[in-house]
């Protein structure tokens, strides 16, 4: 092996970031060209004298950056390999392809609502009624007040002073990793998690610790064991809808995880971006342990991804630190977008929209359960289907065959917090195809594909 012949293992700590930087340099220098295979993780770890997990994180960082791609059973290769970048998403597919790969709730059209909101905001700009200068550190009081009724679903007694406004929940996640994590400590997350968590961890130099899951979500005893073993200061949880599996966390599991977080003095990063899919009244971590929880929400799912406005709510000290990090990362959110968001949030029709999204998700779940009977109907009602592949299929092989049939889905490896694992599943986003007839036809194709035997074109003589 020659790739690491110029790597000086004695020239500093053997961190994933250092290995990643070395490999980036090799790519830029032309030493590693597109299609070159990186050495196996354990072989590299043995040669340079570090843990296999350190090498795995370095390889994953290259994949997230679009500089490499993994092929299940074959290894990691330089270049995209024609595959999807893990985050944020691939380019939109051709018109003929039904895109189940991106979780956008397009079954309830938002174009008219957003157009009217932006038209009203533009009129306020023209009249001078809307300030176009820099906003306050937390995002302007009127913008924070506008979202208080909605955030109150998950955090009792919340006020405008408890809220920060941002350009979506993704930027809040990166800011939370930077501002609220103890030095040297990592972040616990589900073994299968939202790819944005993985990308934010790579970008901020945060160590992710995958935690074992079951049908109810993260296992409290596994979180306890992790915290006794390594330094952890945050835990990322999705109680309403676990992405990618679609599970909703039962109340007893929420309470058990809250007790574990309090026991180990963890900050809970509570993702409620999909909270609108739950009927109001469920108790989340922001009510169970409000003093240790940062709640994150955005309008990307319940309205549209184009409305880049997100919100975080938490204790005063936590919010001050988060606001400072947000200010450093993005300065402010566009006042035109926040003004449009304020108007939408204040509409009586907004609650009606949320109800229609819940009803539409349940309706589509019924059809998917009928055509793919191995799936749990209750999980399907939250907009995603986590489909374990029939014997003989690889994730990439299934995705390629599905796209050839006009349906795009996401391989399960994109959601694995441990880059060395492949769950043998794909994710389908059930709300992303606007037309009902087209949606059903696409599900029928997936059902047909599941009946076909999997194929493997590569073999070793």
From TrEMBL:
Similarity remark:
In the C-terminal section; belongs to the class-I pyridoxal-phosphate-dependent aminotransferase family.
Q: Which GO terms describe its molecular function?
A: DNA binding; DNA-binding transcription factor activity; pyridoxal phosphate binding; transaminase activity
Q: Which residues cross the membrane?
A: none
Ranges in coiled-coil conformation: none
Q: In which organism is this protein found?
A: Stappia taiwanensis
Name the SUPFAM superfamilies on file.
Answer: PLP-dependent transferases, Winged helix' DNA-binding domain
Name one matching Pfam family.
Answer: Aminotran_1_2
Family matches, as InterPro entries: Aminotransferase_I/II_large, HTH_trans_reg/aminotransferase, PyrdxlP-dep_Trfase, PyrdxlP-dep_Trfase_major, PyrdxlP-dep_Trfase_small, Tscrpt_reg_HTH_GntR, WH-like_DNA-bd_sf, WH_DNA-bd_sf
User: Which residue range or ranges hold the HTH gntR-type domain?
Assistant: 13-81
Keyword annotations:
Aminotransferase, DNA-binding, Pyridoxal phosphate, Transcription, Transcription regulation, Transferase
Tell me the domain of life: Bacteria
Q: Write down what this protein is called.
A: PLP-dependent aminotransferase family protein
């Amino acid at each position: 092996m020659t790739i690491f012949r110029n790597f000086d293992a004695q020239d500093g700590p053997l961190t994933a970031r250092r290995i990643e930087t070395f490999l980036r340099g090799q790519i830029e220098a032309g030493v590693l060209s597109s299609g070159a295979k990186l050495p196996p993780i354990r072989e590299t770890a043995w040669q340079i004298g570090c843990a296999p997990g350190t090498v795995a994180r370095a390889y994953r960082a290259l994949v997230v950056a679009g500089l490499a791609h993994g092929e299940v059973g074959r290894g990691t290769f330089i270049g995209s390999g024609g595959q999807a970048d893990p985050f944020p998403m691939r380019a939109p597919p051709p018109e003929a392809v039904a895109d189940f790969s991106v979780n956008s709730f397009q079954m309830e059209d938002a174009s008219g609502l957003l157009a009217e909101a932006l038209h009203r905001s533009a009129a306020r700009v023209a009249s001078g009624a809307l300030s176009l200068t820099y906003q306050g550190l937390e995002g302007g009081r009127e913008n924070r007040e506008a979202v208080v009724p909605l955030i109150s679903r998950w955090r009792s007694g919340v006020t405008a002073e408890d809220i920060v406004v941002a350009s979506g929940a993704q930027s809040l996640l990166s800011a939370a990793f930077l501002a609220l994590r103890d030095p040297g400590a990592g972040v616990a997350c589900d073994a299968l998690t939202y790819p944005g968590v993985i990308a934010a961890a790579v970008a901020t130099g945060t160590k992710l610790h995958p935690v074992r899951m079951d049908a109810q979500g993260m296992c409290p005893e596994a979180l306890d064991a992790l915290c006794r073993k390594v330094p952890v200061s945050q835990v990322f949880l999705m109680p309403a809808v676990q992405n990618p599996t679609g599970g909703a966390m039962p109340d007893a599991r929420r309470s058990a995880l809250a007790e574990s977080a309090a026991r180990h003095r963890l900050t809970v990063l509570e993702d409620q971006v999909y909270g609108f899919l739950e009927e109001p009244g469920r108790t989340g971590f922001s009510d169970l342990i409000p003093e240790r929880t940062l709640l994150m929400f955005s309008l990307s799912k319940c309205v549209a991804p184009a409305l880049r406005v997100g919100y975080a709510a938490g204790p005063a000290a936590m919010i001050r630190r988060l606001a400072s990090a947000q200010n450093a990362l993005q300065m402010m959110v566009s006042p035109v977008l926040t003004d449009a968001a304020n108007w939408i949030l204040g509409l009586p029709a907004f609650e009606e929209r949320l109800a229609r999204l819940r009803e539409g998700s349940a309706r589509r779940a019924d059809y998917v359960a009928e055509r793919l009977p191995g799936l749990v109907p209750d999980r399907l009602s939250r907009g995603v289907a986590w489909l374990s592949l029939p014997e003989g299929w690889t994730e990439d092989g299934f995705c390629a065959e599905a796209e050839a049939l006009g349906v795009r889905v996401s391989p399960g490896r994109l959601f694995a917090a441990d880059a060395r694992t492949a769950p043998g599943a794909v994710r389908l986003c059930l709300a992303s195809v606007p037309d009902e007839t087209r949606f059903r036809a696409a599900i029928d194709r997936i059902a047909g594909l599941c009946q076909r035997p999997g194929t493997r074109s590569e073999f070793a003589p």
